[in-house]
Amino acid sequence: MTKIFGHRGSKGSFPENTMLSFHEAIKSGVDGLEIDVHLTKDDQLVVIHDERVDRTFEAEGFVKDFTLAELKQLKPSSLYQSFSNYHPTWELERMPTLAEVLHLVETEKVDLNIELKTAVLSYNGIEERILETVHRLIRSVKVVYSSFHLPTLVRMRNLDPHAELAWLLFQNIPQLEDYAATFQFSHYHLEKSLLIEGNLSSEIDVTKIRAWTVNSREDINTLLTLGVETIVTDFPERAIALRKDCYALEQC
Asked: Where are the annotated coiled coils located (predicted)?
């Protein structure tokens, strides 16, 4: 059965990459969460998508220029007040650490995809810090590490020969299977249009594909029928309902 992962939690309905968003995605019944990790000024692992805090918090600057204590003081951006289900308690949300999210998924028994945000900025030692934290806190759930930055994945492989790795791609790469074999990738993490538009080689095993970010009903149904391993979506509740219907009608 195709898995459903909450993209930055339940990003379409709640403040992305917050504990609230993760809890809501889990409440909807997701099989896993997709998160993004950066390194702070004092070498702490925090969960946020952008290199800068400007878009999602009421502040300005690069994550790398803040200490963890400073980041924990930042309030969520006023942009979330435009969400239809906005509640004033959202103002209490703060940027999570990786450890906080790991405790959550270990408790709730949902899988985790950690994207290392190293394609724009270089975070010295981030790979080793993430692996140490995961190995220390995770015992019973599956963790896959992904990045757009191929050298990051090479370093991860050198540090942990058993780590499950995935290369994030938004364009077709010739002989993708050769990359997967050479670098021992366990998954292909592909932007949905590569699959919807049929640009990929027919030789690629769809059961190893995690497609992102799949939000429309039409696209979700298309990829469910295709039989991809995972759909990563901003609206996990919608995807889970469509999956239930698809399998009930034996169309998947």
From this structure: none
Strand, coil or helix: 225: helix
Which residues are part of the catalytic machinery?
7, 49
pLDDT, one tens digit per residue, over 23-72 is: 999 999 999 999 999 999 999 999 999 999 999 999 999 999 999 999 99
- At 35, is the secondary structure helix, strand, or coil? strand
Stated pTM of the model: 0.97
Cα pseudo-dihedral 195, 200, 201, 204, rounded to 10:
-50
Amino acid at 28: S
- Give the residue extent of every domain in the chain: 3-248
Cβ neighbors of 92 (< 8 A, separation 6 or more) are none
Q: Distance between CA 147 and CA 112 in Å, rounded?
A: 14
DSSP H helical ranges for the chain = 19-28, 68-71, 98-108, 126-137, 150-159, 176-183, 193-196, 217-226, 236-248
- Per CATH, the homologous superfamily of domain 3-248 is Phosphatidylinositol (PI) phosphodiesterase (3.20.20.190)
